[in-house]
Structure formats: structure tokens, C-alpha cells
Amino acid sequence: MGSAGSLNRGPIRTLILGCMGAGKTSFMRQMVRCQKKSITNNREYYLYCVQLNLLNVYRELRNVCISLEIQISPELDAAFTEIHEYRHKEKFPQKVIDAISLLRNSQLFDFCRMRQRILQLPQNYNYMIQRADEFMQADYIPSENDIMMSYSQTCGLVRDKVKTQGYDFELLELPGHHLWRAKWAQHFEDPDLVVFVIDLSELCDPAFYNKGHLENKTVNVFTSLVSNALLAKVYWLLIFNKIDTFNDHSAGFDFKKLANHLDTGDNAKTFYRSQFTTLLPKNKCFAHMVSLVNDSQAILGDMFKRIGKLHRERPALA
Length: 318
Ligand SMILES: Nc1nc2c(ncn2[C@@H]2O[C@H](COP(=O)(O)OP(=O)(O)OP(=O)(O)O)[C@@H](O)[C@H]2O)c(=O)[nH]1
Ligand SMILES: [Mg+2]
Prior knowledge:
Keywords: GTP-binding, Magnesium, Metal-binding, Nucleotide-binding, Transducer
Distance between the termini: 21 Å
Bound molecules: guanosine-5'-triphosphate, magnesium ion
Order of helices and strands: EHHHHHHHHEEHEHEHHEH
GO molecular function: G-protein beta/gamma-subunit complex binding; GTP binding; GTPase activity; metal ion binding
Low-confidence stretches: 1-6
CATH architecture of the largest domain: 3-Layer(aba) Sandwich
Mean pLDDT: 92
Helix content: 40-55%
CATH superfamily of the largest domain: P-loop containing nucleotide triphosphate hydrolases
Pfam families: G-alpha
Strand content: 5-15%
CATH class of the largest domain: Alpha Beta
Number of strands: 6
Number of domains: 2
InterPro entries: Gprotein_alpha_su (IPR001019), GproteinA_insert (IPR011025), P-loop_NTPase (IPR027417)
Number of helices: 13
Binding site for GTP: 241-244
Radius of gyration: 21 Å
């Protein structure tokens, strides 16, 4: 039995969906941290993943320099080649360390930023560059934050059980890759709650406009979920994520491309949120704007409490 007047409905079966890289795994990790106070007991297992994120920043930087027509000296070009051809082992050889240090200490990033404020580089590249020295040390073990800030694509179904804020959650994350999205519905195991994660920072990406690959993508994915009969009874938690990146990128961004009346980032966020919330009945939907890597556990814990309460108090559905 739950607390006075409430019903014990068993665990809250929670499906975590969203496009690739939106923050589904980050959400899972935050829930686990809420209960266990840490996201993993085996931080050393993430060494390769964190280092690969660093290598990828430098691999992509060369492409960014080329597309922005930034002059690359022969010495820096040789450093790019060194990193490009390196077959990743967890202990970086000195010549790779030297190549990364040389590129980091060059002015290439500054030159690129002078040409274009938002660079087409992997997520959280600033964080990766700032911590590069640590990542390359022989005895380095990733911190929780290093793991949270790194990206590796989820493959297959990821399940977890978490008890937090007095509620039991059974979590299932499905990957956001488009090949996987076509299979999502095969794995809808009568959920109570769908957490749909949306990357707000996409609003500041040119690919979101003028028939770019992000245009209408997330809204379309969501629209087809909402009309899926298998999800007719669920409650929805909409996580508008990466508010930190949005705030950083939105300064000076022209949101009139999104809708003619939008003159500030705040208006743009609200407008975008309404494109999702209007598709759902008001009493079945919670929307939160968060940073799943930066917000405090207090903010996130409060969010989990609210969804638990929602579940317990919802009327019994036929
Ligand atoms: N700056 C910032 N980065 C975030 C935030 N949330 C997630 N990220 C980063 O976004 C990237 C993708 O996050 P994931 O949680 O792995 O994304 P996912 O939705 O699970 O992606 P797939 O499993 O490929 O479908 C990672 O590099 C995270 O560090 C956020 O609030 N702010
Ligand atoms: Mg994932």
C-alpha cells in the first residue's frame, strides 16, 4: 500500500524515447544517480569512450577548418594526420599526445570561432578540449562528469530499475537512431509513462531551417508517437534538454526563421514547447526545461517526485 488514500500500482513502467543524442542515456544516468548517489561503480570502463570523444573533436576540427577556409600550416596538418591515422589504444603514445597539444595550443579554434560562432563539432567540445591533458594521462580514470559529458550511441535495449523519491521505476531506453526508431513500437511493453527527450539546442542549428536534416524532425517523430494506439493510455513527460547549450548558442540568434514573431530566445523556447504540448491532453503531460548534465539533483529529484505522484494519483484507466 502507498501513503494514505493512494493506490499501490506497482513499478512505473517508463519508456525513454527521443531522437539520437537528445539525452536519453543522460536521463537514465540521472535517475540512477538519484537513487545510488553515483552513476556507475566502474568509472574506469568509460576510459575509451571519453578518450574517443576527445579524438573525435580533433578529427572533426580539420573538416571545420577546411569548410571555413582556415589556413592550416604543414606542421598542424601533420598533427591532424597523426590523430586521424591513430588506431585508438587506451594509453596514448607520445606522438598523439604531442599532436593534440600542438593543435590545442594553436589558434585554430579561435580562428574558426572568429568566422563562425557555433562550430559543427561534437557535443561539449569545449569541455573535452579543456580536460584534454587529464584524459591523456596514463593513470587517468574518468570522473562522473567526464562520463556525463561524453557521448556514445546506445545500441539495443537498455533497462534499469530505480527507486527514487519513494517510487519504483522500471526504465527502458530505446536508441534514437532512425533505423531504431522504425522498430520502437515492437518494444512498447504497456508503459505507464513515456519520457520524451528533446534537444533544445537544435533550435540554434542551421540544419533546423531551410530544409536542413533537422527541420521538423523531432516534432514529426513525436507526432507519430502520440498517434500510436499502443501509447493511448500513457502519461507523458517532455524533457526539453540542453538548456545550457541553448542559452549559450541563442545569444544573437535570429529566431524569426522559426516564426516571424519570435524576437528572443525565451519566446523561441516557449513557442517550440507549445508545438509538442498542444498535441497532448493537458492533464496527461508534464513539460520541463532542464540541463541533464548540469542541473542539480534537487531540481531533477523534484521532477522525479512529480512524475511519481502523477502516477500514483492518476485515475484508474479502463
Ligand atoms: N551540454 C549539454 N550536453 C548534454 C545535455 N544532456 C546530454 N548532453 C550530451 O548530449 C550527448 C548525447 O547524450 P545521450 O544521453 O547519450 O543521448 P541519447 O539520447 O541517449 O542518444 P542515443 O542513445 O544515440 O539515441 C552526450 O554527449 C551528453 O553529454 C545537456 O543538458 N547539456
Ligand atoms: Mg542513449
